[in-house]
Every structure is written in C-alpha cells, then in structure tokens.
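Pipeline run #58 for the internal structure catalog. This entry was flagged by the ingest filter as a single-chain record with no existing model, so it goes straight to prediction. Upstream metadata was stripped on purpose; only the residue string is passed forward. Reviewer on rotation: M.T. Logging verbosity set to normal.
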Amino acid sequence: MATLPRLLPETIWQKLQSVSEIRLAPAGGRTGLAAVARKEFADQIRSWRMGILVALLVVTAAASLYTAAMTIRETAGQEATPAFVFLRLFTGGSEQLPPLTSFMAFLAPLVGIGLGFDAICGEHGRRTLSRVLAQPIHRDALINGKFLAGLQTIALMLFALFGLVGSVGLLMIGVPPTGDELLRLLAFAGITLVYVAFWLALSILLSILFRQAATSALAGMAVWLFFSLFWAMIVGLVAGSGEAALWLSRLSPGTLYTEAVLTVLTPTVRTLGTVTVEQLIGALQGVLPFGQSLLLVWPHVVGLIALTAIQFAVAYMLFMRREIRA
C-alpha cells in the first residue's frame, strides 16, 4: 500500500483519498439531523402558538388543581389514614370541573396537532423546502429532525407543567409525595408524552398529504373531535355496553390513554376488563404496587407507541418519495 501513490498520478491519488474520506466520515455529521432539530426546537419554543397552547393547559391545570386541593381538604377529616393523597391532585375533581387527567386526555392532542400541522406543507407554502434540501441536509434528516424537535418541545412542556402542578399542590395540601407516588407521576408524564407524540405524528402525516396548512390543521382537528366526542357514541350504538363495546372503544387513542393513566395514578384499580359477580365474591381489597400497575397498562402503552410508529413510518415513506421542485 505504501508504493501505491508512486504508481498513480498525484491528481488521481488525491481524488481516491478524498472519496475514501467521504465514505469513512460518520453519516450523522453529514445529514444535518442535529442542525434541523435544534433549529425547529428553537422556533417552536419561541412561537406564539406554543405560548397559546401552554397558557391553555396552565389555566385548565390550575382550575383542576384548585378543585382537587379543596376536595382533599374537605375530606381530610373523614379518613383516618388517607393514602395516596398527593396523587389525588391529578385524579380528583368535582361536579363542576373534571380532574387533570380528563383535561389532558381532551386538550393534550391540541399540542401535537399545533406543533406539526404545518411541518411540511408550511415549508411548501413559504417556498423554502427546496432551499433547505439544497443545503447539505438529507431529506430524511428534515422530517426526522422536525419530529425529534416536536418530541423535545412536548417533553419540556409536560414535565414543566406537571412539576408546576406538583409544587403548587404541595404548598396547598402540605403532604409530600412518597417514592411510589413519584414513580407513578413519572409514568403519568411518560404515557402523556407517548399520547401527544401520536397526535404529532398524525399532524406531520397530514402536513405531507395536504399542501395547505389550513387544510392540514382542519383535518387534524376533525380526527381529534371524532375520537374525543363521536367515537363513544358510535360504539354505544353499534355494540351497546358489553365486552365488544369495551374493545371497540379501545380503538380510540383517547380511551387507551385514559385507562392507562387512571390505572397508574389509582393504585386500587386491579383490572381493566369486565368483572363478573362471581369474581367479585371473595375478592380482597387492596392496592397494586407500581410494577404491577405498570404491567397492567403496558398493552395500552405499546398500542400507542405502535400507532405512533406506523403513522410516522407512512409519513416518512410519502415524504421520501415525493417530488420536490424549486
């Protein structure tokens, strides 16, 4: 190998050297994934839409937190040994206001839709997509970077929101959380992140299918309203209230999320299926440890992850095959 440069002209040897350096260079340094993710994350954090979505969640969380804290104070003297008091800040509600878990199941999809409805079609509308891809940025790095930036933004917002709710709730009730409660709250945040990621992947897919950002946003809102308001009605009309209705309702991501978080945040929940009278006779009351509650909802979490992966895979294939002109 040492004599090879002597047998080749200098220009040819330099070209072979440059080609070998390109092939040996790490792929991640050339695709621009990190640059796209950083830029999109910074744009989303500073955008007005993010401020509006955060304000909406903060207002609803503050209202449900106040209601839950007042309920805990009213019932504090009625229980000799209250258990899992801190978790009631997230699951407690009243006739006027639902708990925080219900608010998150209904409003959290708006965060994913708001962050991704113009991810690709917005670039088309501004005529910047061809300019971005003309840079040393691979096409797959663009869509992957947008999705990763959305995940980072959602994770930052959720953990900040839950941390704020927990801190204010601690000051209001004066009861610190136990180790088991902290684990359950972390699981609650993780399941919510997966739930919002599902809607983020859906909105990115719609932004590829439709050229107009307004059309993409309306399509995402239509899917959200269908599963949030009308799916339960359709299941009730088709299957009634039996076992079939339970499984049909779980085709909705909102149902999967609601069952998962209520099971994690309510240790007394020991089953998610229908329970017969024979099964109730002789059953002992008790609570499940955190690991058992997590195993109980693991199929729900896997289902949400699978749906998210399928949607993003379809969006990825459509975007990679799309013809982009200047």
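catalog note: The chain has one domain: 31-273+284-321.
catalog note: The longest helix spans residues 139-173.
status: ready for reviewer M.T.
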